[in-house]
Design a protein that fits this description.
This protein is mostly helical and 639 residues long. It is 59% helix and 2% strand. The radius of gyration is 28 Å and the shape is globular. It comes from Dictyobacter halimunensis.
């Protein structure tokens, strides 16, 4: 249920060494924390906490809409057009007037912020940031507006937004993000001769002077997935020791999309001393977003150094293999033969990298077998099989792909021998190890291998699961169920339904009205939906007719995703509609509020040749114009 995009945002260059004016500012916001002086990066001593504590929902799903929107392409602004020049002239006059009122007419910071917010509602941030931020900084090189930017940031995003709304496209949210990007310009403002850090002073009520480190403040914002994209950009633009320390400190605390942004920011500094930290911690706490992290790591870090080095710490070698596995899996999900204008799958982006990494991965697996190397070599086998099949058909002629495939091909016999022996053994050991919690890639590999020996340890794991902790835990349990379904052992059906009875309140969910839309972000039913849908899907694959009543019940669930899985499972468990209850269930589903559920039900009606459903089909086709064409087509096939 995670959302992915195949294009990664281009890196930001930290080499923007524009001259900035130093100064000394008094601001109205106070801080009781004085940053420690340091001459180097010490991440273990700089743990950054979020400005506002993040809820479980925010840690898991916050920022998805905005991050995917930021990766879309926008029309480039024509800076030479008369319309834009006039618009910027008007904006310059307004901002200059506001700045003058703040500095010389005793206008409050709050009033200044109130006047600036609507002026910043100028357009999409990805489209305007490279024009607007330098423009505003040219007006305020002295940093007089810094307290205003801080005030806008602390106002937060609107709280009454619909779940599918991008806060960065609202007036308040857009101004907040531009304010965070503006802070990236003020990296050399200092006090008392400390010009290497952006540090600002304020007076407490008792008259004492306190300071706030701007890099540390941006580091705290970098752990918030709603604004981490912008905070990390500002820290990279600072390009100071303090900003590096803030980003590395945020690496441990970042979750979800924030982890993606922090990792990309750390890579933008191009510091080899960060490589160990990024490999050790980069993929942590980013369930469903691993490809957004693994691909930049693969491109920037020579992973073969870790794989070939027998003295490297085992965790770093294992994580290097896991990064390669994720890149291979991501490449397997992309088209086989991109056009010459398109970017090839990430594993082929550098023709010389894949063969070197593949050789190092195999030798590392032989030297020290573990499940991380096994899943990586398994994905490499899948990728090589797909491409070699197409190459034999002469459908792939792209030299960016042909060259590395031919170079890796001689390794595959040895890879296959290793996977059929030590590879499968370490995967089975991992799935049976109660201390191992990173089970999703292991479960997927065993499911694709359809190894029947995995059935017993997976069932034992399911039997020890008494409750669902969160969405990430539910995804793990769902992956285990999917593996049982792929293996097809009927012993798995009963334990999976027993798991449902323990962890999901099925009766309560059936009493809730059927939703037309998917569950909103943060809904407490989401973990249950993940497991429920996975169990129903797996049981349909297993084909045990003894659990068909559970399949019927799933078609009445509150979540349309679960209902769809119930109907899909019904296609497999009762393909001819021999049970009258199955036909009744399908007819009821024709009135479902979710259009996709109705379409699935209509396909089952056609499969069953159920002419008794014709009156319902006619009525629904008349009432729901969005489904008229498809339902009329079903009617034509039945009559």
């Amino acid at each position: 249920m995670s959302e992915r995009d195949s294009k990664l945002e281009q890196s930001i260059s930290p080499g923007d060494n524009e001259t900035e004016t130093e100064g000394f500012l008094y601001i109205e916001q106070s801080s009781d924390k004085t940053p420690a002086e340091t001459d180097g990066v010490a991440p273990e001593q700089n743990e950054v906490e979020p400005v506002t504590p993040l809820s479980a929902r925010n840690r898991e799903r916050a920022g998805t809409i905005e991050h995917l929107a930021a990766r879309k392409s926008y029309p480039e602004i024509d800076k030479q057009s008369p319309e834009l020049k006039q618009r910027l002239r008007t904006l310059r006059a307004e901002v200059t007037r506001i700045l003058t009122s703040l500095r010389w007419e005793d206008q409050s910071v709050e009033e200044t912020a109130r006047q600036l917010v609507p002026l910043l509602n100028i357009g999409p941030i990805p489209q305007w940031r490279n024009t607007l931020i330098p423009f505003l900084y040219e007006i305020d090189r002295g940093g007089a507006l810094i307290p205003v930017w801080l005030t806008i940031i602390e106002q937060g995003d609107p709280t009454d937004l619909a779940p599918d709304t991008n806060p960065g496209e609202t007036e308040q949210g857009r101004a907040r993000r531009y304010a965070i990007l503006m802070l990236g310009n003020y990296r050399t403002m200092g006090i008392a001769g400390t010009g290497s850090q952006a540090r600002f002073a304020s007076r407490k009520e008792d008259g004492s002077l306190v300071t706030m480190d701007l890099a540390q403040y941006l580091g705290s914002l970098a752990t918030d997935p709603d604004v981490s994209l912008y905070a990390c950009r500002s820290l990279v633009k600072h390009a100071t020791m303090a900003s590096m320390q803030a980003l590395i400190g945020a690496l441990k605390e970042a979750r979800g999309w924030a982890k993606v942004d922090v990792v990309e920011g750390c890579l933008d500094f191009q510091q080899e001393r960060f490589y160990d930290i990024l490999i050790d911690n980069g993929l942590e706490h980013a369930v469903g977003l691993e490809n957004y992290i693994a691909v930049p790591l693969y491109r920037a870090i020579p992973l073969e150094r870790y794989l070939e080095n027998k003295q490297a710490p085992p965790r770093l070698r294992a994580n290097a293999a896991l990064i390669v596995q994720q890149v291979l899996a991501d490449s397997n999900n992309l088209p086989l033969n991109p056009s010459t204008e398109e970017t090839p799958p990430p594993v082929f982006n550098d023709n010389d990298r894949f063969p070197v990494v593949a050789q190092a991965l195999l030798q590392s697996a032989i030297y020290a077998p573990d499940w991380q190397h096994a899943v990586a070599l398994h994905q490499m086998g899948i990728l090589m099989g797909r491409y070699w099949s197409e190459i034999n058909k002469n459908t792939i002629t792209d030299t960016r792909i042909l060259k590395p495939i031919y170079q890796v091909l001689p390794l595959m016999n040895e890879v296959e021998r290793w996977m059929n022996g030590p590879g499968r053994d370490v995967l089975l050991q991992a799935i049976a190890n109660p201390e191992e919690d990173k089970l999703i890639p292991v479960a997927r590999a065993l499911g694709e291998l359809k190894d029947p020996r995995a059935t017993t340890p997976i069932i034992e794991r399911l039997e020890t699961t008494k409750s669902l902790k969160d969405r990430a835990h539910a995804l793990t349990i769902g992956a285990l169920c999917d593996t049982l379904g792929r293996i097809g052992d009927r012993r798995g059906a009963a334990p999976m339904f027993q798991l449902l009875a323990r962890t999901v309140d099925l009766e309560r969910r059936r009493q809730l009205p059927k939703r037309a839309d998917t569950l909103p972000q943060g809904d407490p039913n989401i973990p249950g939906s993940i497991v429920y849908a996975a169990v129903i899907h797996a049981c349909g694959q297993i084909g045990d007719p003894g659990i068909i009543e559970g399949i019927w019940n799933a078609t009445r669930d509150v979540d349309p995703y679960v209902r769809t899985q119930g109907l899909e499972a019904l296609k497999l468990l009762d393909p001819q509609g021999e049970r009258e209850q199955s036909r009744t269930i399908v007819r009821q589903a024709l009135r479902d509020p979710r259009a996709s559920v109705v379409r699935t039900a209509a396909s089952l009606v056609r499969q069953y040749r159920d002419t008794g459903a014709v009156p319902i089909l006619q009525q629904v086709a008349d009432e729901r114009t969005d489904l008229t064409y498809e339902l009329q087509d079903t009617l034509r096939q039945l009559t």
